[in-house]
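User: Batch of two.

Assistant: Item 1 of 2:
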Amino acid sequence: MPRSHRSRVVAAALALGLAAALAGCDSGAGTAPSPSQPSMPPPDEPIFASDEEALAAAEDAYAAYAAASAAVGADGGVGVERLRDLVDVELYKQSVEEFRQFEEMGLSSEGTSIIRNAALADHRALNDQVLISAYLCRDVSNVRVLDRTGDDVTPADRQDRQSLLVSFKGTRGHLVISQIEPWKDQTPCE
């Protein structure tokens, strides 16, 4: 196979792998809130004033993660430590490995994903943590994967709109993403 075609196939496979990896797997491990963070309200007090407030906190946490991921991708996989405070330990380890491969392949990305149609799945307190799950539609149609020469190697068959179930944990004041998984129901992307 010619080198340029082979490079495009490998880059496409890596780009798809990066998207899948960033979709995450939750091992159940994560970071515990630091002692300096505020404690949870007593059980008879609501965690958030409303479902809308819980969803807004989740959307803010995901937006910070998406912006940091886009910046790491634009830098060719360098600086993945920008994700450290935005995701749990296992998702961070996975991101480090995926962006390392991105860097080794000489790939970078340009553009930013857009979140559409966020909907709250659940929010509750568990011991000293807030747990939130939300359905999101991630639109990556404006994101391009580039090789070392700046050529666009974005897979032609990439699904530009992805329905996701994203799990968050932490405190009311600081949520991290603990899991991002594809959601079989495409309703959030309709």
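Item 2 of 2:
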Amino acid sequence: MIILCAWLFFGGAHVALSSTRLRQVLLERIGARGFVIIYTLLALLGLTALFVTTWVYGASGAPGFGLGAIAPARFVFGLFAFLGVVMLLSGLQVYFRSPIVALRLRSRRQQEPVRPPAGIETITRHPFFVGTALFAAAHVFLASTLAMGVFFGGFVVLTLAGSALQDHRLRTRYGQIYADYQSKTTVLPRARRVPSRDGLRGVSGYLPTFFGAGVLLAMHPLLKLGNGAMFIAMIAAFGLFAVTRVVRRGRVAKMEPK
């Protein structure tokens, strides 16, 4: 219950600042830079609450699915978790070059079509969201306690809801431009054969991502500290990295009220 309350605080604040009229009001009154500061501080506060409650209460309470104790199940769900990490790292790798970010940072007056999907975008247009959801969903079944199942389940709900809300915002704001991009992509991952013209170049582009996923796999014992609370620290680090790049590149000033 305590972990659920922490999730309701973090998720509620995240959705309120991302997808309601409050976002527009704050952007109009304090500007884009002030909004990013408030958004970041609330996100860090919510993640801190999740970190502490998971560390303290994650191992207690009712049992969860506990499939991590069964070797074949641990292998299968572990494979899904690894693929999720590959996908979310792929999303981070191309984040600032993605058509979705390009649309979010452009003016309403710009009506040029975005570039067609490429790379990981041909598998899913929300690789970070979907990768995180896949990783977390696997851990829901591996978790030995209900508290840890709720902890990871919260990531599944938030990321899938986040992808849907982002699609809705961009479709509302850019209409047919985003509808055309949606028609060429999908949210749920789909198999894709590397085109013959890409050859080994198409495959080699993913090698840094697989290497990064391998590093995280090697760090798995560290990420399990505090009942998995270190996963929160990793998510916070990724978020701060993205915010820092936005601020350093001066892209915050391009944000407009939705």
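The chain has eleven helices and no strands.
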